[in-house]
Structure formats: C-alpha cells, structure tokens
TrEMBL record:
Domain Ketoreductase: 10-197
SMART domains the UniProt entry points to: PKS_KR (SM00822)
The protein's name: SDR family oxidoreductase
InterPro entries: KR_dom (IPR057326), NAD(P)-bd_dom_sf (IPR036291), Sc_DH/Rdtase_CS (IPR020904), SDR_fam (IPR002347)
Pfam families recorded: adh_short_C2
C-alpha cells in the first residue's frame, strides 16, 4: 500500500492487536509515526510484538487484556497513558466467532461472542473515550463486518454482536461529536488471515467467498488497516458515525449457486453438522 498518514506524537490503543487486522493496523500506525499500545488476551504475543517494534526504533507497549473485563481495561488504558502519553486514538479489533446453527447454539457460545465482540468493544470505547473527552480530542474506529449489515448462516451470535457494533458506533458519534471525538466503524468482507483460513473450509473460499465478491478475492489485512488509518486521520475530520464498507463490492449485491446456505465453518463440517 502506498497510502501515507502522519501520526507522529500521537498515541493509539489497538485491541486484538497481536494478530490479523489488529496486527496489520499496529504495523501501519508505527510506520506512520504513532506510539502504539498493543492489547491482546494473548499477552506474551503482545509483549513480543511490542519488543520487535521497539527494536526497530518504534514506540510500543504490550498490554495483556481481556476486553470483557472492565477493571482490566481501565488498567490497560491507564498504563498506556503513563508509558506513552495521552491517548488520541482507539481501534477495537478484538473479536471472535463461535459458529453453530441457531437451534443448537449454546448459551455459553452466545455469551462469549457477545461479551467479547460487543461488551468488550463498549468497555474499550468507554475507558478510552473518558480520557479523550478530558483531552478534548480523539478518534475511535470500531471493527465491524459486512455482518453488521446482513446475516450469515450459523452465526446468530456473531451477526448480532456486529449489528450491535453499528448501533454503538452511531450512539457514541452522537454523544461525543460536539466534544471533539469522532467515532466510526469499518465493515470488512472476508479478510485473508490465518485465523479465517483455519475457520472456514478451503472450498468455501474459492467456490463461494471469491465467487460472490465482485473483486474476486478476500481483503488483505493491510487493506483494512489503511482504511482504519484514514478514519483516524485528519483526512476524515468531518467523518463520524459512519460504517465504511471495505468489502470488495460484496454488499453491492451478490448471487451464487449456494445463495448463502453453506454454514461456512470448518469446525461444523468436521463435526458432521452439515456437508458441502
């Protein structure tokens, strides 16, 4: 990517930052001069990533964080400001999926996904937002999904949480807009990360996902990261309350022979819940 932004002197917290979209966002922010808090439930991986960045001359701190824990979130944000200075930006990339047909989805699976993807996002926005409000400036980018806009078989928990991301983003934009804080979200299509590749059958990628996407492929993590940096930057100074689709044209309308009936889960396929 050739997009260039300047975040010199700015501190940004990224949750879910040890892998996937979060990791790509951290890499892009560091290249743009930001000091970055790398928050992840996998604390050892967050620390190792931060150490690598510092070894390359960047400013970063690793933070072990379960975003479902309000007290831990407060401690992480406080530590970030103590180490790297006042927080300017937040990117909420922490999230997970636990697919199952709606009729057999467990309460534990529902709660885990909702608590991580939506409650955890709210707690991160609340903790960082309080400090941004005190500083009188800031920008937040929440990682939603095309499933913030429409459903996906086998993922009633995930889609409900991502619809919630859209609502939360709108409300925070309304409440905080006059107080100097912009709040936006991105809605990616499938993103080509190891976790996504592990979670869906290979045939679904080629026969369904690529087929129904006008650009004919999944997004690269860096393509999502560059959009996140745009929304954090002054180039988006009059953008708030938006859910920006980064979907390769998917939501413009897709038609495939499967018509969305495939549950698209490697785990459920192995367990015999459905067949290809």
């Amino acid at each position: 990517m050739n997009v260039r932004f300047d975040f010199s002197g700015k501190t940004v917290l990224v949750t879910g930052a040890a892998s996937g979209i979060g990791r790509a966002t951290v890499e892009a922010l560091v290249k743009a001069g930001a000091a970055v808090g790398i928050a992840d439930i996998q604390g050892d991986e967050a620390d190792a990533f931060a150490e690598t960045i510092r070894g390359q001359g960047g400013a970063a701190i690793g933070l072990t964080l379960d975003v479902r824990d309000a007290a831990a979130t407060e401690r992480a944000v406080e530590m970030l400001e103590d180490e790297l200075g006042p927080i300017f930006g937040l990117v909420t990339a922490a999230g997970l999926s636990r697919p199952a047909p709606a009729e057999s989805m467990s309460e534990a699976s529902w709660d885990l996904v909702m608590d991580t993807n939506l409650k955890g996002m709210f707690l991160s926005c609340q903790s960082a937002g309080r400090r941004m409000l005190a500083h009188g400036a800031g920008a937040i980018v929440n990682i939603g999904s095309v499933n913030s806009l429409g459903g996906f078989a086998g993922r009633s928990n995930y889609c409900s949480s991502k619809f919630g991301v859209a609502g939360l983003t709108d409300v925070l934009a309304i409440e905080w807009g006059r107080r100097g804080i912009r709040v936006n979200a991105v809605a990616p299509n499938g993103v080509d990360t190891p976790l996504v590749r592990q979670g869906i059958p290979p045939s679904f990628v080629t026969e369904v996902l690529d087929d129904r996407t006008p650009m004919g492929r999944m997004a690269l993590p860096g393509e999502i990261a560059s959009t996140v940096l745009f929304l954090l930057s002054d180039a988006a100074s009059y953008v708030t309350g938006s859910m920006l689709r980064v979907d390769g044209g998917l939501c413009s309308g897709f038609y495939t022979h499967r018509q969305g009936a495939d549950l698209a889960s490697a785990a459920l396929l192995r367990d015999g819940v459905y067949s290809e």
